[in-house]
Structure to design on (137 residues):
């Protein structure tokens, strides 16, 4: 049975809030039709939750940035920045697992041409010592 584009795009679950539902739809819209099966929906639900968490942390970081030199605000800002970094890593990992970014859908390849790479590494039995000029044959 061929996969038809535009079919099988699941709607966000009812339990998601507005931010999570928007993240769900953004990811679904970026993927080919019928890309997201039941297992991928579990991953996508977690990605949507992490996006909502990241947006809340970002809003708090912006509020703390307005407090300038308050020592308590600086400590809280550092802690929130670490949380935001970990949340971002989680989002990227989930999107990569879903193959939702263009880079995650590309096959890795080396940047140099085959000519520039040369003939390749020598096998151990192909390595021979060079004779010095003073040695007799």
């Amino acid at each position: 049975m061929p996969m038809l584009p535009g079919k099988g795009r699941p709607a966000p679950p009812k339990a998601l809030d507005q931010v999570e539902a928007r993240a769900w739809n953004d990811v679904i819209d970026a993927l080919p039709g019928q890309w997201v099966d039941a297992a991928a929906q579990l991953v996508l639900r977690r990605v949507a939750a992490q996006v909502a968490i990241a947006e809340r942390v970002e809003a708090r970081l912006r509020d703390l940035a307005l407090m300038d030199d308050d020592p308590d605000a600086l400590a809280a800002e550092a802690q929130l920045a670490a949380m935001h970094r970990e949340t971002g890593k989680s989002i990227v990992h989930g999107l990569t697992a879903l193959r939702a970014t263009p880079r995650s859908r590309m096959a890795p390849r080396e940047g140099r041409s085959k000519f520039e790479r040369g003939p390749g590494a020598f096998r151990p039995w192909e390595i021979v010592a060079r004779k010095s000029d003073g040695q007799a044959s």
Residues 38-65 form the longest helix (28 residues). Confidence is low (pLDDT under 50) at residues 1-6.
